[in-house]
Amino acid sequence: EAQVTQNPRYLITVTGKKLTVTCSQNMNHEYMSWYRQDPGLGLRQIYYSMNVEVTDKGDVPEGYKVSRKEKRNFPLILESPSPNQTSLYFCASSFQTGHPSNTEAFFGQGTRLTVV
Amino acid sequence: AQKITQTQPGMFVQEKEAVTLDCTYDTSDQSYGLFWYKQPSSGEMIFLIYQGSYDEQNATEGRYSLNFQKARKSANLVISASQLGDSAMYFCAMSNPYNNAGNMLTFGGGTRLMVKP
User: Fold this and answer.
1) Three-state SS for B21?
2) Which of A20, A29, A56, B41 has the lowest tally of Cβ within 10 angstroms?
């Protein structure tokens, strides 16, 4: 079954304690990205990756790191989490087509993070 | 920069009636894609429908149709014969695979739809 898998689904942590949210896809997609969802703001992109070892900042990258060592995995790292990073996080993947065809993004189940 | 605006934070519809969720967008690009996603209370993002900027016909997928008016930069979602299971948050999004950010999706703030029995 084609899917994007995020772990964990729920996480409560304390300020400053490093954490990693994992994301894995089995569709051989080149493009992967991380979004955070906050009420009234929709989803905003944090980081994206167009292929292995190619990553770049999205709209709200401060306080986050990513890596893309393998095509299927794209972990999100919070080196020193703060309460303003409390949010719902989504990983997504899609083919990198380079033309405006249906570049549907497949989303993970979401990770609800609370930083206290 | 791209921008998506959804002006209806929440709305009600009677079961079995049709409903239109508004979406306007702003872009200077000629080639782009428009998407609608559904997010039920369980939180997952479900792809509903896609419209390409050069598609001449409005997209349809079952009970979902996209009313695409390019000159007005609007891409409204129409749900026909609403069902209780349609109660959810709906997001309009836009992509432009040609830009430097590849397939980045820009999302609107969402509309919460509630279907009344």
Assistant:
1) strand
2) B41
Cα–Cα distance, A9 to A78 (Å, whole number): 16
Amino acid at B102: G
Yes or no, beta carbons of B43 and A96 under 8 Å apart: no
To probe the interface with B, which of A30, A31, A41, A43 has the most B CB atoms within 10 Å?
A43
Q: Is B85 near chain A, with CB under 8 Å? A: no
B6-52 per-position pLDDT tens digit = 999 999 999 999 999 999 999 888 888 899 999 999 999 999 999 98
Q: Phi first, then psi: give them for residue B96, nearest 5 degrees.
A: -140, 95
- Test the B interface: residue of A102, A109, A111 with most B CBs within 10 Å: A102
- Per residue in A18-59, pLDDT (tens digit) is 999 999 999 999 889 999 999 888 899 999 998 899 999 988
CB count within 10 Å of CB A3 equals 13
Minimal CA separation from A36 to chain B, in Å: 11
Check CB contact under 8 Å for B44 and A48.
no
